[in-house]
Write a structure and sequence with these properties.
By secondary structure, this protein is an alpha+beta fold. The protein is built from six helices and seven strands. The protein has a seven-stranded antiparallel β-sheet, with helices on both faces. It starts with 18 loop residues before the first strand and ends in a 26-residue tail after the last helix.
Length: about 250
Amino acid sequence: MTYPIGSTGEVGGPDGYSYGAVLVRPGAAERTRVEEVLRRVRFSGWIGPSQGEWLVVLGDPGAGVVAAERRGIIEVGGAIAQATEAAVFAVRVRRDRQLAIVAWRDGAEIGRYASDPSQEPGADDDVIAEPVGVASAFAFAGLAGREDAADDLAELLGEELDPDSVYESERLRHVLRLLGMPDWIVAANALPRDIPTGPRAAELVRLRGGRTGFEGWARHAFIRRLRRGRVAPPAIPDPPRQSEGMGGIEPWMF
């Protein structure tokens, strides 16, 4: 199946948008637990209203450090997964040139994907610029209850996009639709304004350093300044590298 991935005026674009989200499929009592985790790790961002099966948590800044101990949105997803028995996904788009997806079941990581590990800040020149973790598509589809979409998802994640004309937000939009998740996440960069096709800003709970209201606002300036100079961990901690004399393919990839 071929997906018509192309740039649109609605998402992404030459500005190089970055954003990140955790999607949680919680039980009746687990939303409170998710909120407790976000407060404990001093998370900055928004908690969205539950839509369908999924609770959406959006980071601020989306691709940067959003919680204590240099946690990015992926590490926040891991903290939520360890504290609950929920199905958890973390998705992150960096400058619209890299899409990362990680998923957990019962607190254990079951899949990790990055469309282009070379787009991480400070990545070495020999890090490969192609998708890693495409086989995780089958675990992602199973966790979302969309097993019938696994083959299409694997094809979508394995596609190498032209970075000069196509944006990772478009790939993510297709991923979210295949998995039955809210696709307004690709417009999360609109916050703190209303999200196009998504919830109004007033419907989201704003957290600053894990707190709401004046308490969060009062600590926000200091925390934001401190985190701005830090870089969140890479999606693929030890990415594959090009190997001289093997056409850029490492032996473990065979």
